[in-house]
Amino acid sequence: MAKIYTLDSADYIRLKPYIQLPGRPANFEPYERKKKKQKRRPKFDRLEINSANEQDWQELRGIGPGYARRIVKFRKALGGFHKVEQVAELYGLPDSTYQKIKGKLHCRPHNIKKINLNTATEEELKSHPYLNWKQAKAIIRWREEQEPFDGPHVLQTFFEFDDGSGNYDRLLPYLSW
Question: What's the whole-number average pLDDT of the chain?
């Protein structure tokens, strides 16, 4: 009663002899502070981004089920990640989230699915995230009108790849001939 904010200390002293509080009920349990939620420790020190499933991605702070699903889908469309920085290219992923998780990511670029410039169909070419339909058509047109590709360096001569965005360099690890 003495701790009541609006009760003056002089009034408390005057009323103290008349205060009667009932005893504790039989089922009374003393108040316990809620325990702080223990932080969940991830299952891994570093996440291998080419083999991680959606649940593994969700272990990272800031990655929920939506982002995890989109990362796995993006990886599949690419044919595998070549380097960790490609995770930052995921549409809608905030840079702040990427900066928090990038130290926990690791990339082993093994088994990257490559696109054969001499045999890939236009649909296969267009479906790759680093190629647009104009570039796919240019590759098909070159194959039909010229000789087969003897390397990806030929693509540098195409004006469709000369947009200054560095798209050719990003695409290079995914090409075979």
Answer: 84
If DSSP codes are grouped into helix, strand and coil, which group holds residue 105?
A: strand
- Going by C-beta distance under 8 Å and a sequence separation of 6 or more, which residues neighbour residue 19? 1
**Whole-number Å distance between alpha carbons of 67 and 83:** 18
Do the strands 175-176 and 115-116 form a parallel or antiparallel pair, or are they unpaired? parallel
DSSP helix/strand/coil, 54: helix
Given a contact cutoff of 8 angstroms between Cβ atoms, the answer to whether 91 and 97 are in contact is no
Evaluate whether 88 touches 103 at the Cβ level (below 8 Å).
no
> What is the spatial distance between Cα 91 and Cα 74, in angstroms, rounded to a whole number?
9
Q: What tens digit of pLDDT does each residue of 82-128 get?
A: 999 999 999 999 999 999 999 999 999 888 899 998 899 999 999 99
- How far is 26 from 105, CA to CA, in rounded Å? 55
Does the pLDDT value for residue 37 go beyond 90?
no
Contact 65, 72 (CB under 8 A): no
* Dihedral angle sign, alpha carbons of residues 127, 128, 132, 136: negative
Tokens in use for 75? Answer: 């990886």
Q: Count Cα neighbours of 128 within 13 Å in the Cβ-side half-sphere.
A: 28
